[in-house]
Amino acid sequence: TNGFLHHRPVADREVSEKTVAFAYACVWVKGSDRPVWRVLDARQIARLRETGKSANSPAWTNWYDEQAMAKALKRALKW
Fold it and tell me: Rounded to an integer, what distance in angstroms lies between the CA atom of residue 7 and that of residue 40?
């Protein structure tokens, strides 16, 4: 609730749908004293990918982590 997230990434790890456990997004809304957080777990990310129009596109196959973050951000921006 205070806009702080402590993250400890694992270096030199192959990124795939098996290694992405969560995707986080934090958005500050103008005039608000707290940020809006969205956290998606692996199951939610997989469901969003499967139901999308581009489930097997190069974006998902080559940059799974970036696509997962984009989904979390899009959910946060709906606020």
Answer: 15
Give the helix/strand (H/E) hosting 40.
strand 35-41
- Beta partners for residue 66, in sequence order: none
pTM of model > 0.85: no
What digits encode the pLDDT tens for the residues 28-65?
888 888 888 899 999 999 999 999 888 889 999 889 98
> 35-41 and 22-28: which strand pairing?
antiparallel
CB atoms within 10 A of CB 71: 20
Helices (H), 1-79: 42-51, 58-62, 64-77
